[in-house]
Design brief:
four-stranded antiparallel sheet, mainly beta, 40% strand, flat, eight-stranded mixed sheet, Immunoglobulin-like
Length: 407
């Protein structure tokens, strides 16, 4: 179980570790498996390798192990004194100078206390890192001021699995379900513990209020450690009591749990206070904390005011140069001049903007037809010379004058 780890902020990239660790001689597993008895001391050796073309300084130390979120082995940070099974490991050297491509075997011992605790597997680790390869990085706020300083250290860990007699296999115990506010919404968190003597892996399902179902999967669960399995539940939880049930299948065994958990105003307040990543403004001051943003905003505001004033003055100047006529003057029709034409095809066009509808009708309407006396006979027509031939292509008169016509 040789693991490469990066200590620091996960958002900051780091180079691959320049130091490698492996058990001396035996490379079949990549980590140590040491059977031991309570009160016994076991000796071993770890090989430290510098694969680079440059000399490096290496520091070594023991570390504790625990089960991470959703399972998996997690080792403590470098330089942190162990508080658990890591205290059993004692290294003969903790500082090395490694030439390019060099391999150095470092002996160590594992001293198991007489009251070592429950039987079965106990996991710890040995870590190595190069202090000179650490990188410091500063996070800055919107005002350019430094907010946080992070030192990133690349390190390598090899697992030390001490096996005490007895213990049996894994035993998963579901301890309950709680709720938790996170930036994405309200999470239902399944709390689990491996009370057995061996490692466990498994999967299952979470059900909330009979309608919400979510699959569950967990990696390596170290014996006698607790871990959590958070699941995104809802963005709008309701206050009150909620029912939940959990089923987990692992290494040929199964665990079940059903019960209730509470949601109160505290969870909702936590959701209102959550902002994803960098969306939260530093010190809650917003752009007021940035003088550049204030200056830019002022310039934009002045430009808008100047544009409004310019457009208003331009409108006033056009009104003074070209005064608008009253409505009565615009509607008054001028007296038409020239002959009046009864035919619409030859009459001058009527301008609608000057002639109201009633005036146009009265001006160009044909005179009424005078009825003739049916008793009196019409006088004889005088002799007339032959009429000249007319152009048939021209339209005939529409008979606007009324009465009877004869050719």
């Amino acid at each position: 179980m040789a693991v490469s780890l990066v200590t620091g902020s996960p958002a900051i990239a780091a180079d691959a570790p320049s130091i490698q660790l492996r058990p001396t001689g035996d490379t079949s597993t990549g980590y140590f498996v040491l059977p031991a008895m309570p009160g016994q001391t076991v000796g071993q050796s770890v090989t430290v390798t510098n694969p680079s073309d440059q000399a490096v300084s290496a520091q070594l130390g023991p570390v504790d192990a625990s089960t991470g979120v959703n399972g998996g082995s997690v080792f403590a940070d470098s330089g942190v004194p162990p508080q658990g099974d890591g205290r059993w490991i004692h290294l003969s050297q903790t500082n090395l100078q490694l030439a390019p491509k060099a391999n150095v075997a470092v002996p160590f011992t594992v001293s198991v206390p007489a009251n070592a605790g429950p039987p079965g597997a106990h996991l710890a680790g040995i870590t190595a890192w190069d202090p000179a390869a650490s990188k410091a990085s500063e996070g800055r706020g919107a005002d350019g001021q430094a907010r946080v300083k992070v030192t990133v250290t690349s390190r390598t860990v090899v697992g030390v699995d001490v096996r005490l007699p007895g213990g049996g296999g894994p035993h998963i115990d579901i301890q309950g379900v709680t709720s938790e506010a996170r930036p994405q919404g309200a999470y239902a968190v399944v709390k689990v513990r491996n009370n057995g003597g061996d490692y466990a892996r498994g999967s299952g399902q979470l059900t909330v209020d009979g309608s919400f179902h979510a699959p569950l999967t967990f990696g390596t669960a170290i014996p006698n450690t607790d871990f959590r399995m958070p699941v995104l539940w809802t963005k709008t939880p309701s206050n009150g009591t909620h029912s939940a049930s959990v089923v987990l299948n692992y290494n040929g065994g199964a665990a079940r749990w059903s019960g209730e958990f509470q949601v109160g105003e505290e969870l909702k307040q936590g959701l209102r206070n959550r902002v994803v990543g960098a969306a939260r403004l530093p010190n809650n001051k917003g752009i007021l904390s940035n003088p550049i943003m204030l200056i830019a905003g002022g310039i934009v505001l002045i430009a808008i005011i100047a544009l409004v004033v310019f457009l208003d003055r331009r409108r006033r100047g056009l009104s003074a140069t070209h005064p608008r006529q009253p409505a009565e003057a615009r509607l008054a029709a001028p007296t038409p001049t020239g002959p009046q034409y009864p035919s619409q095809s030859t009459a001058p066009p009527i301008q609608p903007q000057y002639y109201p509808a009633q005036a146009a009708q009265s001006q160009y309407a044909a005179p009424p037809v005078q009825p003739q006396d049916p008793v009196q006979a019409a006088p004889p027509l005088p002799a007339q010379p032959p009429a000249p031939a007319q152009d048939q292509s021209q339209p005939q008169s529409s008979g606007q004058q009324g009465g009877k016509h004869s050719r």
